[in-house]
């Protein structure tokens, strides 16, 4: 037993002799890695070479070009467990800076900048707010090392600007050794090259007219065109945006050109003249002007409201004598035929017709009776030559006074008595027309062919076909309408040379008469209408003169 105890004690003593000291145990444990000292400037090598440096390997793939967020606020932090030496290489700092920038983490960005300005974060926020930037995409390129103490990463950026779109730019992120590692050498041009040397950028806003409909020249309608009931969006406006460098004013990017409006047949100069003439009327009025060869509407200025220049129905008064004269000429009465123009005339067993102001001109040619607008002449001649619906047929078949597709409204009913026929002959009773319809009548005389008015370059499908007038009738009507201006009821209106036309004073029950003047000059036919304006020669014809002289 004693021998066994002695043996155990000897084994324990031997084990104690083999056990290491505590300090020796500590030395055998792995030691934490301490930061590697920064390579002194000029040593020819950075603290940590970029991936693949000196081995022919390609540069590391840049971070994905996406806009990101960093709710945890870790955008500028290195991955957990990254050795401290790797955290401060220029490559690592640049990558962390771009990651933080994408995330909008300005605090993390500032922490990677050597001596950041106090308003670093505010500068970035103001830049985006002032220029309407909604997102930013960054794509870094390969790092360059121009010197041992300098690094530079070129990068391509795309900012999305509200109202303009993608705004691309190229800049560079510069880095320098600082604080025992590497830091970004930030300057304003890091945000954009235009900010170098005190430059700035501004978003210029310019409001422009951008109507939905344009004149035939591709221009906006004249201001106060009086055509708003006929064309939509004439007052449409848009705001154009432009990013400009300051102080040079160079435009870096501008908003896309808005879609062009639709061109109409309206001529800007004619429309402006018509609008000003209508405004001068001082009463609800309208002027419609047509191209005599095509029927295209060149102007419509309307203060009547409700598109009544096209669809309003008014007695045309003596301006309708153009149609009556065409029927009489077609019935064989020549322009030089002698006819009576007494102060009054009574139809057999019927109504008495009188001339304006009780004028008695005795016996005159049909042309002069037309020029002086003799009611008595036209009532009698219609009774004697146009019985049996001939006047209505002439109006309907050759001048569009019937139900038909198209823009203009006008009508005449069959006369059932001589009194009705006499009244129809001077544009009263059942005869009703819109200003557009009477402009079509004037255009038919000028061109020798009646055409439906149109707002299209070519007549729409289903349009009424043109109706040619008899050549002799059209020529006689042109002479008769010139006589109205040179020596008849419109001689004192101040109309320019070359104008031909016909005045009209249409009686209205219980109200003042409507004033009319229809005519043409060169390739433009027109109708002037002043609602309850009174005398055609004294009111409508001078307005026509104002309109024509403005062209």
Kindly list the characteristics that best describe this protein.
single chain, 551 residues, five-stranded antiparallel beta sheet, 24% strand, 23 strands
List the helices and strands and how they pair.
Layout: H1 2-18, H2 22-28, H3 84-87, H4 90-103, H5 106-111, H6 120-131, E1 133-140, E2 144-147, E3 150-161, E4 165-178, E5 181-184, E6 200-209, E7 213-214, E8 237-246, E9 251-254, E10 262-263, H7 268-279, E11 285-291, E12 297-302, H8 308-311, H9 321-330, E13 338-341, E14 344-346, E15 352-354, E16 362-365, H10 366-371, H11 375-385, H12 390-399, E17 410-411, H13 418-425, E18 432-433, H14 435-447, E19 449-450, E20 467-468, H15 471-487, E21 500-508, E22 511-521, E23 524-530, H16 536-549
Parallel strand pairs: 7-10
Antiparallel strand pairs: 1-3, 2-3, 3-4, 4-5, 6-8, 8-9, 11-12, 11-23, 13-16, 14-15, 17-18, 19-20, 21-22, 22-23
Helix pairs in contact: 7-16, 9-11, 9-12, 9-15, 11-13, 14-15
| Main β sheet profile | 5 strands, antiparallel
Which structural class best describes the helix and strand composition? alpha+beta
- The number of distinct β-strands equals 23
Strand content: 15-25%
What is the terminal-to-terminal distance?
143 Å
Q: Helical content, roughly?
A: 25-40%
Instruction: Determine the mean pLDDT.
Output: 86
Residue windows where pLDDT falls under 50 for at least 5 positions: 1-75
- Oligomeric state, counting identical vs distinct chains: single chain
How many helical elements?
16
Radius of gyration: 46 Å
Basic shape: rod-shaped
């Amino acid at each position: 037993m004693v021998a066994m105890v002695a043996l155990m004690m000897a084994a324990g003593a031997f084990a104690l002799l083999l056990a290491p000291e505590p300090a020796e145990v500590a030395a055998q444990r792995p030691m934490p890695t301490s930061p590697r000292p920064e390579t002194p400037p000029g040593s020819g090598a950075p603290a940590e070479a970029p991936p693949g440096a000196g081995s022919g390997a390609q540069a590391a793939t840049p971070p994905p070009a996406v806009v990101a967020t960093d709710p945890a606020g870790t955008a500028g932090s290195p991955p957990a467990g990254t050795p401290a030496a790797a955290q401060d290489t220029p490559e690592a700092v640049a990558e962390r800076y771009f990651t933080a920038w994408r995330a909008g983490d300005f605090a993390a960005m500032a922490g990677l900048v050597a001596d950041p300005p106090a308003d670093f974060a505010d500068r970035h926020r103001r830049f985006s707010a002032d220029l309407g930037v909604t997102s930013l995409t960054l794509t870094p390129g390969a790092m360059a090392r121009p010197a041992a103490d300098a690094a530079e990463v070129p990068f391509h950026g795309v900012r999305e600007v509200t109202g303009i779109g993608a705004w691309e730019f190229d800049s560079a992120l510069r880095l320098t050794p600082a604080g025992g590692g590497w830091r970004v050498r930030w300057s304003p041009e890091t945000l954009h090259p235009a900010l170098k040397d005190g430059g700035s950028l501004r978003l210029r806003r310019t409001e422009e007219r951008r109507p939905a409909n344009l004149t035939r020249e591709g221009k906006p309608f004249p201001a106060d065109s009086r055509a708003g009931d006929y064309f939509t969006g004439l007052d449409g406006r848009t705001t154009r945006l432009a990013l400009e460098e300051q102080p040079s004013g160079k435009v870096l990017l501008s908003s896309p050109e808005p879609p062009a409006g639709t061109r109409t047949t309206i001529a800007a100069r004619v429309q402006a003249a018509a609008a000003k003439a209508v405004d001068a009327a001082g009463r609800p009025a309208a002027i419609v002007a047509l191209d005599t060869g095509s029927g295209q509407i060149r102007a419509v200025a309307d203060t009547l409201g409700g598109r009544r220049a096209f669809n309003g129905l008014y007695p045309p008064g003596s301006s309708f004598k153009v149609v009556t004269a065409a029927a009489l000429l077609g019935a064989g009465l020549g322009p030089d035929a002698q006819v009576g123009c007494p102060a009054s005339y009574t139809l057999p067993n019927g109504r008495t017709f009188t001339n304006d102001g009780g004028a008695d001109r005795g016996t005159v040619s049909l042309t002069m009776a037309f020029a002086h607008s003799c009611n008595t002449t036209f009532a009698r001649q219609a009774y004697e030559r146009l019985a049996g619906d001939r006047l209505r047929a002439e109006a309907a078949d050759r001048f569009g006074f019937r139900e038909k597709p198209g823009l203009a409204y006008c009508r005449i009913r069959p006369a059932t008595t001589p009194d009705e026929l006499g009244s129809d002959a001077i544009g009263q009773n059942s005869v009703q027309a819109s200003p557009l319809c009477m402009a079509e009548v004037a255009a038919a005389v000028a061109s020798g062919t009646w055409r439906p008015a149109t707002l299209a370059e070519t007549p729409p499908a289903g349009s009424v076909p043109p109706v040619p007038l008899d050549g002799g009738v059209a020529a006689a009507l042109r002479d008769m309408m010139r006589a109205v201006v040179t020596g008849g009821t419109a001689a004192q209106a101040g109309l320019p040379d070359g104008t031909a036309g016909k005045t009209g004073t249409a009686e209205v029950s219980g109200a003042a008469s409507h004033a009319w003047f229809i005519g043409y000059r060169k390739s433009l036919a027109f109708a002037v209408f002043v609602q309850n304006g009174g005398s055609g020669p004294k009111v409508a014809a001078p307005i026509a003169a104002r309109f024509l002289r403005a062209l």
